[in-house]
Amino acid sequence: MPESCFEVGILVAKRKLKGPWASHAWLPCAILPAAPAANPWTRLSASEQEEIFYAGSFEVSLHPSETAHYRDNLRSERPSLWVALRHVGGDDYEIAAVTANPYEGESMAEGIGEIVEAVPMTLDIQAKVAEFFAAFHQERPFVKRKLDPIDPEALARGGPRLSRPDER
Fold first, then answer.
1. Would residue 162 count as lying in a domain?
2. pLDDT-based confidence at residue 168 (cuts at 50, 70, 90)
3. Least CB-packed of 99, 120, 133, 154 within 10 Å?
4. What are the φ/ψ torsions at residue 20 (nearest 5 degrees)?
5. Tens digit of pLDDT for each residue in 97-156?
6. How far apart are alpha carbons 15 and 33 in whole angstroms?
7. How many domains does the chain divide into?
8. Interacting residues of 121 by C-beta distance below 8 A, sequence separation 6+
9. Mean pLDDT, the chain, as a whole number?
10. Which structural domain range is residue 31 located in?
11. What is the C-alpha to C-alpha distance for residues 114 and 93, in angstroms, rounded to an integer?
């Protein structure tokens, strides 16, 4: 049986900016297929323009009802995991969410206050998601809802009259 949850490590870049309003920006930049033994927020590398940190681990959950979304993600040109960072004060951030569902990732990006980036999936993670898809996906046919026919006489009468509480 494929795993419905797996842990990933998140790498975050602190990039210098040239604008007058902010000196740097935090961006999720890579996913590790497993959590390393390093402590969260360990600096891994530094250059003049960018520092890379191991931000910590996060458990990604896969749900059988979302398998069609995972399929869309895996079939895209760049299968990704969406990583959301939440500002917790000062220069501190926490990992708020990680998802393989592209539509959930898109909805996370619409909010204010969190940094959301689509980060490429490693081949190991793609294999886990594909195995989950193969085990749980059930194609569901599209069923268009049928509306009740309109009764023109009910429209002419104004429909049922609702009484106000003071008229009872």
1. no
2. low
3. 154
4. -80, -10
5. 999 999 999 999 887 789 999 999 999 999 999 999 999 988 888 888 888 887 777 766
6. 23
7. 1
8. 31, 79, 80, 81, 100, 129
9. 89
10. 5-136
11. 9
